[in-house]
Amino acid sequence: MVLFIDNKPHEVPAGKNLLEACLTLGKDIPYFCWHPAMGSVGACRQCAVKVYKDENDQKGRLVMSCMEPVVNNQRISIEDHDAKEFREHVIEWLMTNHPHDCAVCDEGGSCHLQDMTVMSGHNYRNYNYKKRTYTNQYLGPFLNHEMNRCIQCYRCVRFYKDYAGGKDLDVFASKNNVYFGRAEDGILENEFSGNLAEVCPTGVFTDKTLKQHYTRKWDLTMAPSICQHCSVGCNTIAGERYGSLRMIANRYNGDVNGYFLCDRGRYGYEFVNAADRIRKPRIQQRETDREALLSNLSGLLNKPGVIGIGSPRASLQSNFVLKTLVGEHNFYHGVSDSEHDLAELAVKILREGTVRTPSTKEVEEADAVFILGEDITNTAPILALAVRQSVRQQPAALAEKANIPLWNDAAVKGVVQDKKGPLFIATLTTTKLDELATATYRATPECIARLGFAVAHALDNAAPAVADLSENLLVLAEQIAQALRTAKKPVIISGAGCESDAVMKAAANVAHALQKENKNTGLVYTMLECNSIGLAMMGGHRLHAAFNAVVNGHADTVIVLENDLYRHGRKSDVDAFLKACRNIIVLDHSMHATTQQAHVVIPAGTFAESDGILVNNEGRAQRFFQVYESKDMVRESWRWLLDIGTEAGNTRLSTWKNFEDITHAIATSEPLLQGIDQVTPPSQFRVAGQRIPRAPHRYSGRTSMQANINVSEPKPPEDPDSPLSYTMEGYRGMPPSSMIPFFWSPGWNSVQSVNKYQQEIGGALKGGDPGIRLLEPATTGTIKYFEGIPEAFKALEDHLLIMPMHHIFGSEELSARSPSVAQRIPKPYILLSMDDAVSMSLLENYILRFYIGRYEYSLPVKVSNAIPNGVAAVPYGLPEIPYTELPEWATTRAPKYLHTLTPTYTPKHQNT
Amino acid sequence: MFSIIRTMWLTFLHMFHKRDTIQYPEEKAALPARWRGRIVLTRDPDMGERCVGCYLCAAACPVDCISLQATEDEHGRRYPAFFRINFSRCIFCGYCEEACPTYAIQLIPDFEMGEYVRQNLVYEKEDLLINSQGKYPGYNYYKVAGLAIDGKSKGEGDNELEPVDVHSLLP
C-alpha cells in the first residue's frame, strides 16, 4: 500500500491504522491512549493528522490517526498547520491540571507526557484558573500513586482490567473529576500491576522500589538482562547506580515478553542489594583474600574424590565450567530427582517429538488452550498473560466479519461482548485463569493425566485409551477434544509445577494426537527455575547419586554452585550428605542454609554482576550481560571456577580466558547446546569501531561520584566479556537487538521509544528478536504415544496426599528475598477440602498437625471448595516449610519417632 | 626630548588620580550580585532544604562534577542524602543554577576557594548548604508543586482546588 505523508509516498503494510503506519515509518506523532498491545480507543485526541480526499484537496479534514485505517494512495499530513495547532491545543488542555512537580516526580526524564509536550510545542500555561487536585491511595509495596499527574488517558484501567484481568483498579467519579484507583486503599492484587508504571504515560503510577533509591533513567548504567525468577526468561533491563541495582524495566522482545513483565520479575531484583550478600571469600567462617583462597582450594582439588553440584538458577557457563572442573562423571544436577526427571522428559519430548513448542507470542495467538496441572499464573506468569489474550482470538473472528480491524479496541469489544475462546484448565484447585475457562477440572495429578490421556484418545484412536473413566470425564474429554480439533492454532500447556511425569506425558499425547491433523499445534512445558531446561540439556547425574557418592565414601569434597541444597533435597538427606563431606565449597551470592554449613564460601556474582546464558522453557538461549563491576571480591561463578581450575592445574580450564572461550567450548562439546555462541555478537564486535555504551549520553556525575574517595577519577573498568562499555562513551546509534542496554531515541526519553527499535510497531525488533531456539521438533519419525496411564486417585483414611502450591511471590528463592516481594508472600498454610476439614473437625486457621515420614509439620488450615478430598496443598518454597519431595503422603497420626523441623535460614532484608 | 618630559609629567600626575588597584586581600572587591562564584545550596523561607534531589543540576553540568542521591524524609519531602560538587572540575558556568527548578542551587559572589590539596576542593552537602534563601527570597517549591507533604495537604498549595470528592456526582 502507498501512503502519501506530506506529499511523499511511503510503502506501508495493510491492516494498520495511520498512527501505527506513521510510527513504523519513523515519523513522530504524539499519542497517549493508544498502546501497541492494547489497540486504539481514540480517547485522548492527541494524534490528530490531516487526511485529504485527493491531491486536489487543499483543505483536508482532521482525524485521529489511531482510529483511521490505512487506505491505498491515501494522502495525509502530519506537518499541516491546523493539525499541529490542534495537537498543541489538546496537550495544553491535558496540561491545565498537571501539577508543577516534575522535579519530585519519578517519571521525570523517562516521561511520555514530557516528551509529547515538547514534541507538540506547548510550553506555556494560558489557563489562569486553579488546578484540580486528588488525594492518593496506598497501593501496596510495588507502586506509588500520585493522581494529580493524571491526564485521563485510561491506559491504566485498559491494561489492568481488560488486558491483565485485574479486578481492583477502576475509574471513579465523572466528567472532569475522573479518578483512577481502587475502591479503597489497599494492595493492588494483580500479578502484573507493576506494568502500570510503564503503561502510564506520566507519573501517576511509579515504581515504589525505585523510589527508595531513586535515580533518573539518564543516570543509570544499564545492561540487557534476563529475568531469573521463572522459566519463561523475560527480557529485562537492569539499571545500576553507585554500586547498587536500582530497577528492572521491561526489555521488549516480541517473541518472549512483549511489552510486559510480571511483578515477581520486576520487583524481585532487590536480593542483589541484600545486607546478607556474600561479598568476601570465607574459609571456615573467616574472611580471607584471593591468594589464600586459591592456594587453599588447589590443595583440596588436587586430590581425587571431588564432585560438583550444579544449579538450575546458574548460567550455562557456570554449570559447564564446574562440569569441566570436576569431570563429567562427577557433575550432578542440583535439583530434586523428580525435577531432574521432569526437565529431561520435557527436553526429550520437545526434541524427539514432532510438536513444536511455541513462543509466548505464539501462545497469545493460540485460539484454543488446554492447561494440564499447571497453575501458570504462579509458575510462569507472563505465559498466563499470554493465555489471557488467547481467549480473545476466536471471538475476534466476529469483529473481522463485521469489518472491524482488530486494533480498534472499543469496537471489537462491542462486537465480542463477553464471548471467549476455548480454554480448558485441569488443575488441583482454583486458579486465577478459571474465570476465562470454558471448563475446569479439579483433580489430583493422576486424574488430570487420565483426562489428558482420554482427550488424546478421543482425538486419535491410536492413542492409549483410559480404562474405567467416569461418564462426566468422558463427556469433558470429548468436549475438549472437539474444541482442540476445530482450532487453528491449539496449544497444550503443562509443566513441572505439579511434579508429575504422567501429566506431562498426557500433555504430550494430546499434542501429538492433535499434530496428526493440525501442524500448528503447540506444546508448552513450564519449568521451576530460569535455567532448568539448560541444565537438563547439559546432562549430569541426579542429586541423590551425589548424596550416595559421598555417603558411601566415593567422594569427600563437594563444590556446590549457586544452590541451596535444602531447597532440593529432604533435610535429613542433605544433613547426612553435608556431614559426610570433608570439604564443602559453596559458590553463591546470598546466604542460605547450605552456605552456612560450608567450609569455603566464595562470593559469586548475581545476574547483575555476571554474564551468562540461560535457556528458557521454550528452549531459547538468551544472554544476560553484566550490569556493573562489583567493588568487592564478587566475581562471576565461572570466573572463580576458571581461576580455581587454573590454580589447580586443570589444563583445559587454563586455556579459557573469558566468557567467549567458555561459550565456544560449550557449543563444541555439548551436542544439545550447539549454536549458543551465536546468541550475541562476539566480544570483539564493534559498531564503527566503538563499543556500545551501557550509560545514556546524559549520564551525570562522572567526575564527582567517587571524588569523596579520591579526587582523581579512576579509569573506568573494561569489559573483557562483551562489546559493551561501562560508560557513556561509545556508539550512539541503534545496537544489535540482543544487546540493547536501554531504549532511547531523540525526543523519546520514555520507554515508548521502543517503537523506534521495532521493524514494525508491535512486531520484532530490528535485526530480529534476540535469543536462539535450541529445541526444534524432529521433522520425521513415528510418534510413539506414552503408555502407563495412572490409576485414578483414591483417598486414604487418616492420610492426605500433600501437593505443592506455587505462589508467584514466595515460591521462587531469589525474588522472595526482595523486601517488596516479601510483603506479598503468603503465610504458611495447608489447604484442605471442605469435607476433609469437617471430618477432622477443623476450621479455617486451626492448626493441623501432620507427619511426613518421621517429620512433624503443623500449619494453619485453609479450606477450599475446589480441592479434591483426600488431598492437601502446602505452599512451595517458603523457608518456613522445610523442603520435602512432593507429592507425598502425610498421615495425621503421629509416628513413633519424631523430629521437629525448624526453618533453615531466614534472610535479612535491607533497603538501600 | 619634549615628549619624554611630557610622558614623565603625565605619569607624575597619576599619583593624584583615584586608584584602580585594590589592596586584595586586605581590601575586598565589590562583586556584582550575579557573579558566578562558589556554589551553595539554599533553604526556603521556613528553613527547609530547598533541594529536592531532582538531578537536573547534575544532568546540566557540562563537566559532570555534581553527584547526589535523592531520598525522602518522614514528612514526605525529598532531599539529597548526599550532595557532592567536585570544585576542582567545576567551571562555574552556572548551568546548574539555570537548571534548578527550586532555586536551591545558586552561584554566589565568592571566589576565594583556593586550596593546596586538590582533595579539599570536593565539597559535600554540609559544605554547600547555607542558612539563607540566597538570591530568591520567599520562594517555596512545595507551595506551588502538587505534591502533598506534612503540613501541606492536597489542595492547600497556591493555585490549587480542594481535592476532588470521588463519591460525588454533582455537576
From the alpha carbons, calculate the radius of gyration of chain A and give it in angstroms: 28 Å
- Please name the CATH topology of the domain at 28-134 in chain B: Alpha-Beta Plaits
Overall tally of domains of chain A: 5
Q: How much helical structure, as a percent, in the residues of chain A? A: 25-40%
Oligomer: heterodimer
Cα-based radius of gyration of chain B, to the nearest Å? 24 Å
Tell me the structural class of chain B. Answer: alpha+beta
Low-pLDDT ranges of chain A: none
Q: Quick recap of the structure?
A:
The complex is a heterodimer of chains A (about 900) and B (about 170). Chain A is α/β, with parallel strands linked by helices.
Characterise this structure:
With 912 residues, chain A is an alpha/beta fold. Chain A folds into 5 domains: 2-94, Ubiquitin-like (UB roll), CATH 3.10.20; 102-109 and 125-273, no CATH class; 277-335 and 529-617 and 633-674, Rossmann fold (3-Layer(aba) Sandwich), CATH 3.40.50; 341-527, 3-Layer(aba) Sandwich (Dimethylsulfoxide Reductase, domain 2), CATH 3.40.228.10; 799-900, Barwin-like endoglucanases. Chain A has a 7-stranded mixed sheet, with helices on both faces. In chain A, helix 18 links the parallel strand 21 (490-495) and strand 22 (522-526). In chain A, helix 10 (337-352) packs across helix 19 (532-538), helix 16 crosses helix 17 and helix 16 (445-459) runs parallel beside helix 18. Chain A starts with a strand and ends in a 12-residue tail after the last strand. The model of chain A has no long low-confidence stretch (mean pLDDT 92). Chain B is α+β, with helices and mostly antiparallel strands and 171 residues long. Chain B has a domain at 28-134: Alpha-Beta Plaits, CATH 3.30.70. Chain B is 18% helix and 16% strand. Chain B has helices spanning 2-14, 56-60, 95-99, 125-128, 141-144; strands spanning 39-41, 66-72, 78-86, 105-107, 122-123, 160-163. In chain B, strands 2-3-5 form a 3-stranded antiparallel sheet. Chain B has a two-stranded antiparallel ribbon with strand order 1-4. The mean pLDDT of chain B is 93. At the A-B interface, strand 6 of A face helix 2, strand 2, strand 3 and strand 6 of B. Strand 6 (131-133) of chain A pairs parallel with strand 6 (160-163) of chain B, so a sheet runs across the interface.
